[in-house]
Amino acid sequence: MIATHAHDAGETVIGQRIGGGSMPRRIVIVGCGVSGTTAAFHARKIDRTAKIVLLGDEALPEYSRCGLPYAFSHVVPSLEALIGYDEAFYEQMNRIDLRLSWKVNRIVVEKQTVEAVRTNDASTETLQYDALILTTGARPSIVPVPGADLKGVFTIRTMNDIQRLTDHLTENNAKRVAIIGAGLTGSEMAEALLQRGVTVIQAEIVPEILPVILDPDMASIIRTRAEEHGVEYHLNSTLEEIVGRNGKVSGVRISGEEYGVDAVIVAVRVKPNTELAKNAGIVLGESGGIKTDERMATSASSVYAAGDCIETYDRITRRNVFFQLATTAVRQALVAGTNAAGGNAKYPGSTGVTTVKLFGLEIASFGPTTTASEEIGIHPISVRITGSTRLPYYPGGKELTVKLLADSEDGRLLGAQLVGEEGATLRANFASIAGHLGLSVEQFEQIETCYSPPLAPVWDPVTIAAQALLRRLQTSRGAKSQKLTTVED
Amino acid sequence: MIATHAHDAGETVIGQRIGGGSMPRRIVIVGCGVSGTTAAFHARKIDRTAKIVLLGDEALPEYSRCGLPYAFSHVVPSLEALIGYDEAFYEQMNRIDLRLSWKVNRIVVEKQTVEAVRTNDASTETLQYDALILTTGARPSIVPVPGADLKGVFTIRTMNDIQRLTDHLTENNAKRVAIIGAGLTGSEMAEALLQRGVTVIQAEIVPEILPVILDPDMASIIRTRAEEHGVEYHLNSTLEEIVGRNGKVSGVRISGEEYGVDAVIVAVRVKPNTELAKNAGIVLGESGGIKTDERMATSASSVYAAGDCIETYDRITRRNVFFQLATTAVRQALVAGTNAAGGNAKYPGSTGVTTVKLFGLEIASFGPTTTASEEIGIHPISVRITGSTRLPYYPGGKELTVKLLADSEDGRLLGAQLVGEEGATLRANFASIAGHLGLSVEQFEQIETCYSPPLAPVWDPVTIAAQALLRRLQTSRGAKSQKLTTVED
Questions:
Q1: Contact between B451 and A64 using a beta-carbon 8 Å cutoff
Q2: How far is B450 from chain A (nearest CA, A)?
Q3: What are the distances in angstroms from CA A271 to CA A164, A275, A294, A300, A321?
Q4: How many domains in chain B?
Q5: What are the E-state strand segments in A31-174?
Q6: Final residue before a domain boundary, out of B268, B303, B319
Q7: pLDDT at residue B9 above 90?
Q8: Cβ–Cβ gap A66/B34 under 8 Å
Q9: Are residue A122 and residue A154 in the same domain, yes or no?
Q10: What pLDDT score was predicted for residue B84?
C-alpha cells in the first residue's frame, strides 16, 4: 500500500507515493454523482498534490437525485438549484479535473488504465491511475411489457428524465399519469404530480405500498392519506401493457383493466451499474453489486468502489444488500476517497435508516420488514403503538405511530417503523443507533429521552413502544420456557 | 425480600407477601407529584391486591409542574388542564387510596409506620407499611435578602404559586416584573410574562443565562433572541434587596441599581425535600438528596425513594447529582413502584438530557458544561458548528448550532448542546444514547442518519460536529504524543 509520510524535510506532504519522488498520485474517479464528488473532495483533503480526474457521463456536475421530485413539483424552484457545486468549485477550489460528458468504456486493471470517450465529439483518452474509484451508480429498470418503448414512458433518475417528463406533460396537456411501482420514488412522484394538477393512478405488484421500508399495517396509514389526496391505487396488480396511439402512450393495461393515461412513469427497481467492473474482472457480490471490503477496496488492486453500484453490509441482517441511500453512499465515498488517496478509513456498514415525506406525513424506518425478516430466517416479534409528540394538555401534539421489531431469538432491536405528521425522521435515527450497536430491546428501553411540554412528551412514543415490546418478548420467553417445561414433564 | 410467586393454586397473584397468607401488601407513598403517581400505578400493575395509599400535601391530584408556565401564559387553556388524572382514575380504576391535603410528619422505620395529618381538619392517622416510597419532591429557594417576605414575591413550583402570581399581577395592574435567576424556570416565566404583556427584567448571578445546561457561547444565542423579544438581562448581577411600599413589592436593588417592579419571581434553585427522610435516619448522599441504590432502595429496610428528593447517578460524570427532571423522576418511580410491590427492576442512571423551548428556539443538551467538567477534573475538547436542518436547495431549512464535548483523556462523547428553531430536542436524544453507552466520538461519528430533502440533510449537523470533534481529538493526541517525544528526546 501507499505510505502517508512526508519525504521532503520541512514540508508536510500527505500521501506521496513510496519511491515516487515528487510524482503526484493519479486518482481517477468514474461517475460524478454524489459518491464520485464526495470521493474526489475527500481524496483532495488527504492528498493535496494528487492529480484527481472525475469523469461524469452526464453534461452537468453532481446534483441531488433525491431532489428531482421536488424540482418537478416546483417546491424547489428549478432543476439547476439541485446542482451541488459549480465547476469552478471543482476546478479552481479543489483542483479536480472535472470531465463532464465523458463515458468510460473499459477498465484494464492489469495496466491500471481507464479508456474514456467524450460523448459530444467522440474523442478518446486512456487515463493511467494509481488509484481508481468506481462510483458508477445505478439505473432504473424498464418493465418488459408491450409498449415500453412508446413516447411518454419515463423513468426517474436524471435531471434529463425530469426535463423530458415535464416537456411531455406540457406538450400533451396531460391530465392523468400512471405510475408503476409504489416505492419511494414512485410515491414521491405521485405527490408531485398531484401538486402539478395531474391525476395519478398507481400500480403496485404487492398488496401494500412502500413494501421495502414498511410493514403493511404501517404503510396503510400513508396509503389512506394518499387516497384522500387523490391517488388511485391498484395493489396486487401487474402492468401488462402500455397502450399507444400514434407512437405515444394513451393508456395502460393493469391486471386486465385498461386505463387512459397521458404518460407512464416506471418506478419499480434500481439496479447497480456494474458492467464496467464486471468486464474488468472485478468481483461482484451475490446480490449483484460490486463487492468491497470495509476499506471500500474491490477485488482489483488499487480499485475502490462506493455508492449505488456496490453492495453494502447491513448491520441488522448481517448480509450484503442494496440500500441505494445517499447517506450510505457519501459515507462509503468518504472512505473510498480517503483510502484511494493514501489514508486509512473504514466503513462499518449501515442500518439502512431511511426517511421520506409523503402527503404531510413523515415516514422513517430501519431494519427489515416482518416479511423480509422471515424470508431470511429471522423471526421477529413486534408491537405497534400510537402515541403523541406532546402531552395531551399541550396544543399541537401530533399522532405518531411506532412499530418496533425485535429478534425473538436474541432479543435485540431489529427495526423501527414510524409514521406521523412530525418527529418520525429523527426518532428513526434515535432507534437506529440501537440497531447499529446491536442493543437488546431491554438496553434500548432504558435510554432516557428529554421532555418539555412544547417539544416532547415525558415518555417518548418510541420508549412506550420499546416497553411494550420488552413485555411481549418476556411473555414470549415465558411461554417458550413453559412449553419446554411441559415437554420435559 | 418479598417473593413474586403465587400462593393460591389456580390464580396468578403476583407479589403476595411470604408468609402473609392472604394479607394484602401495604404500600404507602408519600408525595403525589409525578413520581408518587407513577410509583402508585406501577405498584398496582405488579401487585393487583396490594393496599396502596398515596398521600399528597396539596389539595389536587398530580399535575404537570413543567406545564405551569404554559398555563400562566394561556398557551395551555387552564391550570386544571395540567391535572393528569381525575380522582376516579386513582380510586376506581386503580384502587389507589388517594389522600389529598395530607401531610406526613414522621416516619418510624423501626415500626414501619408513617404519621400523617389531614391539613383541613388536623385529624391524624398512623399508617403501617410493608413498603414505603418517598416521592417528596423538591422546593424552590427563597433568597435571604431584605424584603423577601413582602407581598408580591413568588416562587414557581405549585399551581397555587401560579394562581397567586396571576391574582397579584391582575390586582396590581402589574407592568413590570423582576425574575431572579435565568435558568429553565426563570427563562420560561420570562417568555410567559412577555406573552401576557408584562415587561421583564431578569438578574443572573453568573455571566450568561442557562448556565446549568449550556456553555456561554451557546446560551448567548438564546439571550440575543430573548433580548429581541424584550427581556432586559442583568448578568453577573446579584439581588441585594427587594424594595417595598405598604408591605408590597415596589422594586428590586440589583448590584447597586434600583429598578421599579410590581412583583418578583425568585427562580434560583430547587432543593430536595429530605427532612422526613433525614429525621427518620435515612441516609442522604453527599449532594444532599436521599441516597438510593439502583433498585431505588434507601438505607432503610423496605423504604424506596424516587424523583426530585433523591440524588441520581449521572452516567456521564459518574457522580451522584440532582437532575430535577420529570423524565428521570418517572423512570425512577417506575422502578421504585415495581420493587415496592415485589417486582425486580433497576434504574441505570441518567445522562441528564434536557430540553426547553424559549422564544421560538429549541434548546437541548446532555452532559456537563465545559465549566462544570473542569470543576470535577474532566478536561473537555469541544467544537461548535452551525449547520442546517435541510440541504441548501430545499426551502424551510433552519439553522442548527451544535456543540459537542469530548473527554480529552479517553475520547468519549461527554455532551451535546443544541440550539435552533427545530430539530434540537430529538437530536439531543440521538446524541445522548452515545453518552448513556459511553461511546467514543469515533464510534458515534460512524452512526448513519437518514436523509430526505424535506426532512433532513445528507450529513446531519450532529454528524458534522462529531466529525470535526474527532479531527480535533486526533490533532490533540498528535500534539500530545509529539510533546512526549520531544520530552523524551
A1: no
A2: 5
A3: 22, 11, 22, 22, 12
A4: 3
A5: 51-56, 96-100, 102-108, 113-118, 124-128, 131-134, 138-140, 153-154
A6: B268
A7: no
A8: no
A9: no
A10: 96
- Do A329 and A277 share a structural domain? yes
- Number of Cβ pairs < 8 A linking chain A and chain B: 171
pLDDT at A10 over 70: no
Any B CB within 8 A of A445 CB: no
pLDDT tens per residue across span A160-216: 999 999 999 999 999 999 999 999 999 999 999 999 999 999 999 999 999 999 999
Q: How far is A349 from chain B (nearest CA, A)?
A: 9
- Cα dihedral: B245, B248, B254, B258 (round 10): -30
- Whole-number Å distance between alpha carbons of B34 and B63: 7
Q: With a cut of 90, say whether residue B3 has pLDDT above it.
A: no
d(CA A98, CA A87): 7
Catalytic residue among B32, B66, B309, B450: B66
Residue B66 appears among annotated catalytic residues: yes
Q: How far is the alpha carbon of B388 from chain A, nearest alpha carbon, in Å? A: 14
What is residue B192's DSSP assignment? H
Quickly count: other Cβ atoms within 10 Å of residue A231's Cβ: 23
Q: Is the pLDDT reported for residue A139 higher than 50?
A: yes
Pairwise CB contact (< 8 Å): A64 & B460: no
Q: List chain A residues with CB under 8 Å of B330.
A: 458-459
Amino acid at A349: G
Total Cβ atoms within 10 A of residue B167: 10
Q: Judge if A157 and A123 occupy the same domain.
A: no
The arithmetic mean of pLDDT across residues A221-244, rounded, is 98
Query: Which contacts qualify for B112-119: CB closer than 8 Å, 24 or more apart?
Result: B112/B302, B114/B28, B114/B30, B114/B55, B116/B55, B119/B57
A448 & A301 share domain: no
Question: Does the distance separating the beta carbons of A81 and B353 come in below 8 Å?
Answer: no
Domain end: A268, A303, A327, which one? A268
Chain A contact present for B81, CB below 8 A: yes
Q: Do B98 and B201 sit in the same domain of this protein?
A: no
B447 touches A at CB < 8 Å: yes
Q: Which domain holds residue B302?
A: 26-66+80-138+271-340
Across the range B241-254, mean pLDDT stands at 98
Residues contacting A481, CB < 8 A, separation 6+? none
| A478–chain B Cβ distance below 8 A for any pair | no
Domain co-membership, A112 together with A135: yes
CA distance B263 to chain A (A): 26
Q: Would you mind telling me the total number of residues written for chain B in this entry? A: 489
Q: Which of residues 39-68 of A touch B (CB under 8 A)?
A: 64, 66-67
Same-domain pairing of A381 and A400: yes
pLDDT of residue A482: 62
- The predicted-structure confidence for A376-434, as pLDDT tens digits, reads as follows 999 999 999 999 999 999 999 999 999 999 999 999 999 999 999 999 999 999 999 99
CA distance readout (Å), B51 to B3, B22, B134, B277 = 17, 12, 16, 22
Nearest to A356 among B67, B430, B452 (CB): B452
- The answer on pLDDT for B331 being more than 80 is yes
**0.90 cut: is pTM over it?**
yes
Which chain A residues are Cβ-neighbours of B455 within 8 angstroms?
355-357, 362, 364, 425
Q: Taking CA atoms, what residue in A is nearest to B427?
A: A426
- CA distance linking residue B259 with residue B251, whole number of Å: 5
B75 lies in some domain: no
Tell me if B30 is assigned to some domain.
yes
pLDDT tens digits, one per residue of A332-347: 999 999 999 999 999 9
Domain contains A131:
yes
Cβ-nearest to B455 among A67, A357, A458: A357
DSSP letter, residue B67: G
Q: Are residues B133 and B250 in the same domain?
A: no
B423 to A426: CB separation less than 8 angstroms, yes or no: yes
B5, part of any domain: no
Please report, for the domain that includes residue A220, its CATH number: 3.50.50.60
